[in-house]
Amino acid sequence: MTLPPEEAPWTRLRALTAARIGQARTGASLATAPLLDFRLAHARARDAVHTELDDAKLAAALGQPVLTVTSAAADRRTYLMRPDLGRRLTPEAQAELTARAGEYDLAIALADGLSARAVQDHAAALLEAALPALRAENWRLAPLVIVRQGRVAIGDAIAAALGATAVAVLIGERPGLSAPDSLGAYLTWHPRPDSTDADRNCISNIRPEGIRAAEAARKLLFLLREMRARGVSGVSLKDESGTTALT
To answer: What backbone phi and psi angles, to 5 degrees, belong to 150?
Structure first.
């Protein structure tokens, strides 16, 4: 089939991006096919926000002992309406983590965030790529923690309870119309109750169609090594990993 001249450039560009560009139109409206595709993407994004994390399945996929706790947001509706509660541990969770406290270099928390699907599908692959290198470099790792109804900042409370110098929070990011399963990794050196986003480094869009697990692990390892060497994180530390090897 020969494309009309005005369609050919868009076809080439669409092969390079998931963005909706050059969509077919009927008059002032989208044509039926792109309109249905948009509605499907919107439905998937909504589903990602509301889907509950299957923590038992995630723990099985990780293949090692984990602690499972819940934030102060008792359910998904509360979590979405009260972001502040997703940043706090319940007294029971605080007690459970404090009982496992030690002298750890790094705590790793896995939180559902705004896309449980992202954590469910991609966190295990990232840790499978990163943990052997961390252990080979003698990082003292706290027990893995799965957090239901968790926000990024809950990692600060987890690190404090466990006695960890740094924290990595793997969390489902806000879904978009082209990526309902994007995983983010937020890294903080010496997290405190008053830590802000300026104190964190973020690796975003971890998924097969974005930053793949091996590449994300390489970036994560680079940033953690630099945090430990320089004693800083956030805006004071840039990702200059380039082509640094994973090991």
So the answer is: -105, 145
Residue carrying the six token digits 């300026």? 198
Q: Using one digit for the tens of pLDDT, what is the confidence trace for 93-111?
A: 999 999 999 999 999 999 9
C-alpha–C-alpha distance, residues 106 and 199, integer Å: 16
Encode pLDDT of 70-94 as tens digits.
999 999 999 999 999 999 999 999 9
Task: Report how far residue 87's alpha carbon sits from residue 150's, in angstroms, rounded to the nearest whole number.
Answer: 6
Domains of the chain: residue spans and CATH: 50-236 (3.40.50.11240)
Strands (E), the chain: 25-26, 29-30, 66-70, 104-111, 144-148, 164-172, 183-189, 200-206
Q: In the 8-state DSSP scheme, what is residue 88?
A: S
The stretches in the chain having pLDDT less than 70 are 1-8, 243-247
User: What is the SS3 assignment for 147-165?
Assistant: EECCCCCHHHHHHHHHCEE
203 three-state secondary structure = strand
Q: How far apart are the first and last CA of the chain?
A: 49
- Token look-up 């994390």 returns 53
Look up residue 11 and give its two tokens. Answer: 């076809």
Task: Give me the pLDDT at residue 243, please.
Answer: 52
